[in-house]
Design a protein that fits this description.
442 residues; alpha/beta; UDP-n-acetylglucosamine1-carboxyvinyl-transferase, Chain; 4-stranded mixed beta sheet; 13 helices; 23 strands; 23% strand; disordered C terminus
């Protein structure tokens, strides 16, 4: 359905699982395609964004079988791909375009990456610059370094790149290109970004080196074909975690969710705001586990600096948490949000104001005075999945009916979001799993 209609929710007392991690699903398909044989990927997220990556790899000659809705069999080609017969459509996925640019930079043929209207507005210079230094010829056909991208790949040289921004996509693009360069390629970041790529390289028996904020890879290695399980997406879980955190007497158990420490900043923020959180972690290729959250009267906080790369995707829903909390929340150093699927800072500020919240927009963040009761309103998703889902949660706390328009965009990351929302709104179920009382509170 294109419009969602939401009313105040009852207290949450339930357990749930969330779909596979989007960031990890993209990378699993790419690394499996670069491997030396068939790889089974379980828990794959069959969203529009991740299927764009599947389509991109198929266009390079990679055979990918769909065993069931969340299981793929990817037949690796040792990183030697065939030239596409047409343009490669990345849809709405910036991850697909930026990481594919790294892979295509090392291929001896010409390719053209295109995307939808939203992706065509997103900046690509941040990957064009280092990949060009490695020897690829990349032309951005859009204005100011924007897509489509024409890539003439070939023989690459290693690079020691000092990135001006902490970006997992930039880091990953350079490391993937480094797999095709002779010698050692390194990326140094100003602060730690998500480390999925380096963890997964290690899992596929490519040995990256890590020293502080620098990660390196030696070219010429071929990933070993292996079975891989994608954990649940903590960014998807964040919407339900906030919904429970802001309700005193609520309790939510999220199972089989990824708990990589470069992604769990949302938990630390909610703890600072007053929520009680416990977790069990099973260390695998990617840490996976169970999170229990109990609601409380939240209070304002500051979200800034080195913490921002860890919570960049969760800022919209944390802004909703701030509006529901008591006191002032200041979000800063988040200017990156202005060049996502939409200008997320402007979109959040506009929708919060329409619901009656007190919010001021700054150049690189938001200042929110929480505690004012929210009221239902008609809100635009701005074609951004995270805006749509964040304000669906806001509607769970508002008086009257909230309508979210343009929700088709949610299919890019969480196709079953509304079905889960309806269950929480209509039929909350008592959790069948015992309360985890043996774990320390964060």
């Amino acid at each position: 359905m294109s419009d969602w209609k939401i009313r105040r929710a009852p207290t949450i007392q339930t357990e749930l699982e969330v779909p596979g991690d989007k960031s990890i699903s993209h990378r699993a398909v790419m690394l499996a395609a670069m491997s030396n044989g068939p790889c089974v990927i379980k828990g794959f997220l069959p969203s529009e964004d991740c299927m764009a990556t599947v389509g991109a790899m198929r266009s390079l000659g990679v055979a990918i079988e769909v065993a069931d809705e969340t299981t793929l069999i990817v037949h690796g080609m040792r990183g030697v791909f065939t030239a596409p017969t047409g343009e490669i459509d990345c849809g709405n996925s910036g991850t697909t375009m930026r990481l594919m640019a790294g892979i295509l930079a090392g291929q001896p043929f010409r390719s053209r990456l295109v995307g939808d209207a939203s992706l065509s507005k997103r900046p690509m210079r941040r990957v064009i610059e280092p990949l060009t230094k490695m020897g690829a010829k990349i032309t951005a056909e859009g204005k100011e370094g924007r897509p489509p991208l024409v890539i003439e790949g070939g023989k690459l040289k290693p690079l020691q790149y000092v990135s001006p921004v902490a970006s997992a996509q930039v880091k990953s693009a350079v490391l993937l290109a480094g797999m095709f360069a002779k010698g050692k390629t390194s990326v140094t970041e100003p602060t730690q970004s998500r480390d999925h790529t380096e963890r997964m390289l290690e899992y596929f028996l490519v040995r990256p080196q890590k020293q502080g904020l620098t990660v390196s890879v030696f070219g010429g290695q071929t990933p070993e074909s292996r079975e891989f399980r994608v954990p649940g997406d903590i960014s998807s879980a964040a919407f339900w975690l906030v919904a429970a955190a802001a309700q005193p007497r609520s309790r939510l158990l999220v199972k089989n969710v990824g708990l990589n420490e470069t992604r769990t900043g949302v938990l630390a923020v909610l703890v600072r705001m007053g929520a009680a959180i416990r977790e069990v972690i099973d260390a695998q290729a990617e840490p996976i586990g169970v999170v229990e959250i109990q609601g409380a009267r939240l209070k304002g906080t500051e979200i800034k600096g080195a913490e921002i790369p860890n919570v960049i995707d969760e800022i919209p829903i944390l802004a909703v948490a701030a509006a529901l909390a008591h006191g002032k929340t200041v979000i800063s150093d988040a200017g990156e949000l202005r060049v996502k699927e939409t200008d997320r800072l402007a979109a959040v500020a506009m929708n919060l104001r329409l619901m009656g919240a007190q919010v001021a927009e700054t150049e690189d963040g938001l200042e929110i005075i929480g505690g004012t009761p929210l009221h239902g309103a008609r809100l635009d998703s701005f074609g951004d999945h995270r805006i749509a889902m964040a304000f669906a949660v806001a509607g769970m706390f508002a008086e009257g009916e909230t309508t979210i328009t343009g929700t088709e965009c949610v299919n890019t990351s969480y196709p079953n979001f509304y079905a889960t929302l309806e269950k929480l709104l209509k039929q909350p179920t008592e959790a069948q799993t015992r309360v985890i009382t043996s774990l320390p509170t964060r």
